[in-house]
Design brief:
Length: about 475
């Protein structure tokens, strides 16, 4: 694991950024666009090397997947930032109520200052450079701490960023949990964390000591509700895609399926066929990502072993010829009706294992979801719009895709984030820009202001004014 070079201690980096943010408070459009352009050039010039680094970190993680899920998503977000910045930076006029007229009011959008970003390993470019680009576009200085579990990628990111950014502009800090802990204790103007709910709690506590506001992009168990009205074969392909992309190591992957009772056999067959369609083999298939580490694979295996021992029906749905390899490619597996007490039903799975639970009516599915922490994502498949609306009206989740999986994250017009234990605060698009922006309310008084009418002494004139105003309210 690479540590911070002793010549650049963490606190000195922070102090340099903090000083810069307080001496150059206004960050013009041209400067912001230049920072975005440098980051974009870095990505475009080194996209192959970055994808290779991700591949090296995972063992198997196809460059095409990194292109689609990391680099493409980043480019789309950055193109939107570049285009919309002039509009988003502008002061926003606010209507002035009659009792303050003819004053005018606006929101002045300013950088927060220094933004800290802590990232996970699963989409190591998108989930680090994405918020970094947004924070830079909002005029901030950025310190980024990527994951120690993707050492090749994180080291390459650090060296590329150091080549094109001054350390007081944008810098990447390397290190494991010890460095991450020290990092989250810095008095940032905002701390943006993507990772597990467990570590998110620690980050929130560390930030609270500095009154540093946080965004927590966490995980959890995202339900996928299959309605009786759905085309099972079509749904199965989309569920397989959402579940097996990056071998299930996706924060918004469907964690478990709620299925109308009696459809288990049909779902199993449709799921098996869909796996074979998308991944004709598992072992040695360059499109099928490996589990990131031995430790993570052992945890997933333990979840399966426990379910097996408890009598759940565990079905390996890898196409014939597949088999677990030394490269940690883990076979997709369905687990039917696991008992509620199993770890499989209480921990975020984050791998290619899909519990399937039968339900007897939409009310039961809603109750099941609402008895658990609020999920990051929720999926519904079907054509019965009344059932869909009932589910959406009666559950609260970070986001929803109807009749597909994952896709709401790719829509830059939709805020992305969790709720409750799946996180707080959201980003993407203008919501992300505002996450890293102080919207400073400014009231500009007019020389014709009537404020004096409200001043003491409170005599009959004051009373007449209040009586008059009351008519307008
Ligand atoms: P993690 O919480 O283990 O680690 C995330 C980051 O936190 C790493 O950079 C790590 O070094 C750092 N860290 C570790 N200990 C820390 C501490 N005490 N204080 C501060 N930072 C610390 O998460 P992970 O395993 O990298 O990622 C997987 C998790 O992230 C899953 O739960 C997944 O659902 C979640 N996730 C969420 C989103 C989202 O957008 N909501 C996206 C991707 C992943």
């Amino acid at each position: 694991m690479t540590q911070i070079p002793p010549s650049l201690p963490l606190r000195a980096l922070f102090d340099a950024q903090h000083h810069a943010s307080r001496t150059q408070v206004e960050v013009p459009l041209a400067v912001r666009r230049d920072r975005l352009a440098r980051l974009r050039t870095l990505l475009d010039t080194h996209s192959a090397a970055l994808a290779d680094a991700v591949q090296a970190d995972f063992g198997v993680r196809s460059p095409q997947l990194t292109e689609a899920a990391d680099l493409f998503v980043l480019r789309a977000g950055m193109a939107q930032l570049h285009k919309q910045l002039p509009r988003w930076m502008k002061p926003q006029r606010v209507h002035t109520p009659i009792y303050l007229q003819p004053a005018s009011a606006h929101l002045q959008r300013q950088p927060l200052g220094v933004v800290g970003i802590i990232g996970p390993w699963n989409y190591p470019l998108q989930l680090t450079f994405g918020p970094a680009a947004t924070a830079l576009a909002a005029g901030n200085r950025v310190m980024l701490k990527p994951s120690e579990l993707t050492p090749h990628t994180s080291a390459l990111m650090a060296s590329l960023v150091a080549q094109v950014f001054a350390p007081d502009e944008f810098t990447v800090v390397l290190g494991g949990p010890d460095v991450a802990q020290a990092f989250s204790a810095l008095p940032f103007d905002h701390l943006f964390f993507t990772g597990s709910t467990q570590v998110g709690r620690q980050v929130a506590a560390a930030a609270a000591a500095n009154l540093t506001p946080t965004t927590l992009e966490l995980g959890g168990k995202s339900p996928c509700v299959v309605d009786a009205s759905c085309d099972l074969r079509d749904a199965a392909v989309k569920i397989v895609h959402g579940k097996l992309l990056n071998a299930g190591q996706t924060c918004i992957a469907p964690d478990y399926v709620l299925l109308p009772r009696g459809q288990e056999a049909a779902f199993e067959q449709a799921f098996r066929d869909a796996v074979a369609q998308l991944f004709p083999t598992i072992a040695g298939n360059p499109d099928y990502a490996a589990i990131v580490s031995e430790r993570h694979q052992a945890r997933l295996q333990a979840l399966l072993d426990e379910a097996h021992a408890a009598g759940a029906r565990v079905v390996d749905v890898a196409p014939a010829g597949g088999g677990t390899t030394a490269a940690r490619q883990m076979n997709p597996t369905l687990v039917f009706s696991p008992a509620p007490g199993l770890r499989l039903m209480n921990e975020e799975i984050f791998g290619p294992i899909l519990p399937v639970l039968p339900y007897d009516g939409m009310d039961e599915a809603i109750r099941f979801i609402n008895l658990r922490p609020r999920p990051l994502a929720l999926y519904w498949f079907g054509s019965d719009n009344a059932a869909r609306d009932q589910l959406l009206a009666n559950t609260v989740s970070g986001g929803v895709t109807v009749n597909d999986t994952l896709m709401h994250v790719a829509h830059e017009g939709l805020p992305f984030g969790g709720v409750g234990e799946s996180g707080w605060g959201s980003y993407h698009g203008e919501t992300g820009f505002l996450r890293f922006t102080q919207q400073k309310p400014v009231l500009v008084q007019s020389r014709w202001a009537m404020g004096r009418l409200f001043y003491p002494p409170y005599g009959p004139r004051f009373q007449r004014v209040m009586d008059l105003l009351r008519r307008f309210l």
